[in-house]
Amino acid sequence: SLLTDPRSLAHQNPSPPRGDPQIAPSSAPSSPLFQPSPSLTLQLAPPSPHPATPFSRAAMAASNQDALIAELQRKVAELETTVKQREMQYYAARDSRAMVCHTGDPCFPEGGIPASYAKTIIQDYHHMDSNERLNTSSYVNVVFEPEEAAVAQLGMGINIADQTVYPVTFKVHDHVVNMMANLWHCPPSDVFNEMGVHAGAGTVGSTEACLLAGLALKFRWRRWYAAKHNLSHDEVRKVYPNIVMSDMYQAAWEKLFKYMDIEPRLCKSSYKSMILDPSEAEKLIDDKTIGVVCIMGNHYSGHYDPVEDVCGFLPLPAFLGLFLRYFHVLTPPDCSPLRKVNEMLTRVNKEKGFQVGIHVDGASGGFVAPFQPEMHDVKWDFRSENVLSISASGHKFGESVCGTGWVVWRQREDLSEHVAISVTYLGGNADSYTLNFSRPASGILVQFYKILRLGRYGYTSKVANQMQTTIAIRNGLRSMKLNGKDRFVLLDDGDSGCLPVVTAMLNPALNLPYDDIDLQHAIADEHWYVSGYSMQYHCPMAEEITPLFTDIDGEQTMFRIVVKSNLTMEMGISLVEVIGRAVAWLDQHIGDDEDAPAAQPSITIKDDRAVSGGKMKGGAPSLKFRRTTTAAPGGPDFGTRTSLGFARMSRQGSGAFRTKHGHQAC
């Protein structure tokens, strides 16, 4: 009745006493997106300091009535306007004017907006990102079939941690664990014979899988070390353990170093091989070593660490291989018996009485190596007796949704039992391994869908397609020349026995005035994202920027192209053409010709990239950068970081150069 006839309130209460409700002014933010639905906000008026006379009460009533009517009329008008606005298309509504994420005073919104508006806002923000299908810097899968997306949505409503309510979904989880164990040749253990499932778990990406595997190794070592040195539980907890791996580890391991208090002992490698050298790893092992990590496909170049018989070349007939090696025609360094980590550990454990084992970080290679014919006889998995656990990212080459990972242990005894929490449900027992508890079942169900959808044949065909695309890209880079020299130096492991990754650097012999990070930015102008980074990382021990390799300067840059399943042959060839146009543009606009006439004096850009000498070939000064490098912890230096983000350069016509921050030279 107040909305239809505000005067009815006055008839019901013609003489409001002291403390009568009054309309309070709205304190909602001015942005239409954050305004609540129109409603009356009431508060008590302060009492009058003097007793009201009949005359004053009548005047007050009339005054309050007029104010109330005016306020209600305003609220009704606002309500009518809001209803009309919410019926409009989003881009015609006032809500589209709101600065949602770019406001200087972020706050939790008072009121809501229509679902279509919320979806449109989020979609608009997404479109301002890079195109995920053209992002070759990431290993994460970004393509999903409609049926797959429906399965992921189904899993969003299932808390996989609640085995009592969702026992069938958890049975699917166990079935996927068993399939992963089968893929990696895990032998049946007592727990499998008893419970029908291998010791393993679905995790939130391979990060959680690595942490769980590392913890199991730590607690296994602690029990052994305490028995060997006759230490109590409290005494052994004071001993600082270590873990050995290549310095080409993924950032997930730095969480293990820091969170779980484990010393990293890192082996440096050559930029020509990019693998863990077993002879160097052996020098770092002592009785405090909990294990050695072998990376099946490092994220820099896709090389496989030599767990056992990793050769990095196509298999040859036995007699031909023996002939070539006997006459030193073909002697791959990775195939030397002394360079196999598994054999090295067998010998060291026997000689020194250790029990050091291997964890295989198959974040990327765990879903690639099993489907490569040249790797079928390579014992990189549980076929090597010292391999105690394997982890993988389901959301990378496993083709599942982001946030999917897997870890499998050889056995429960003295391994996974150290991180298992026993959960009793439905009259039986089950192990819970994960670091967190509640999580959706989406990743598990999508992984199950993908395994059913592809099978071994489908995964094998998919990997073959990816490797063929890498060959095409690699051949395209090889074909590019400058002054009779190769434009690029390839750094990856070739056409087989590795990840579908192309890694290269601009040929240092050309002495170009630009580097691979500049090339990254030039490529980005055609919407492709190719990651360029320097050959150095943030060392967790020294807490400083450290060269990645032993035989090349850390300031040297390189770039990497990850060939995911959606990067088809035609797209790969298109990317090569983009790279060709990018280097041609850089050649034309950035140079060192000191004799070229300068149209303008030197220009200084106030940024963390300093301008040095050089002339632009068109006559204007060129911008030759010296970077202030900041590497990501436990990972590569992805370009030059500033307080405002990446300093990105883009073309602004033939005679201009602009950084992301708006600085320009013409």
Can you tell me about this structure?
33% of the residues lie in helices and 16% in strands. The chain is of the alpha+beta class and 666 residues long. Strands 3-9-8-7-6-4-5 form a seven-stranded mixed beta sheet, with helices on both faces. Strands 14, 15, 16, 17, 18 and 21 form a six-stranded antiparallel beta sheet that branches. A three-stranded antiparallel beta sheet has the order 24-25-26. α13 crosses α15 (569-589). The longest helix is centred in the last third of the chain and has 37 residues, at 442-478. The chain is globular. Residues 6-45, 310-338 and 593-666 have low confidence and may be disordered.
Describe the structure concisely for a colleague.
This protein is of the alpha+beta class. The protein is built from 15 helices and 26 strands. 33% of the residues lie in helices and 16% in strands.
Class from secondary-structure proportions: alpha+beta
Strand order of the largest sheet: 3-9-8-7-6-4-5
* Radius of gyration over all CA atoms, rounded: 32 Å
Question: How many extended strands?
Answer: 26
Mean pLDDT over the residues: 80
Shape: globular
Largest sheet: 7 strands, mixed
How much of the polypeptide forms β-strand, as a percent range?
15-25%
- What low-confidence regions span 5 or more consecutive residues with pLDDT below 50? 6-45, 310-338, 593-666
Distance between the termini: 68 Å
Q: Kindly state the percentage of residues in helix.
A: 25-40%
Number of helices: 15
Write the layout of secondary structure elements.
Layout: H1 7-12, E1 21-23, E2 42-44, H2 54-86, H3 115-127, H4 146-156, H5 167-183, H6 190-195, E3 200-203, H7 205-229, H8 233-236, E4 242-246, H9 252-259, E5 263-267, H10 278-284, E6 289-295, H11 318-326, H12 341-352, E7 357-362, E8 387-393, E9 405-409, E10 421-425, E11 428-432, H13 442-478, E12 481-482, E13 485-486, E14 488-490, E15 501-506, H14 516-524, E16 531-539, E17 544-547, E18 557-562, H15 569-589, E19 609-612, E20 624-627, E21 636-637, E22 641-642, E23 645-646, E24 649-651, E25 657-659, E26 664-665
Parallel strand pairs: 4-5, 4-6, 6-7, 7-8
Antiparallel strand pairs: 1-2, 3-9, 8-9, 10-11, 12-13, 14-15, 15-18, 16-17, 16-18, 16-21, 19-20, 22-23, 24-25, 25-26
Helix pairs in contact: 4-13, 5-13, 7-9, 10-12, 13-15, 14-15
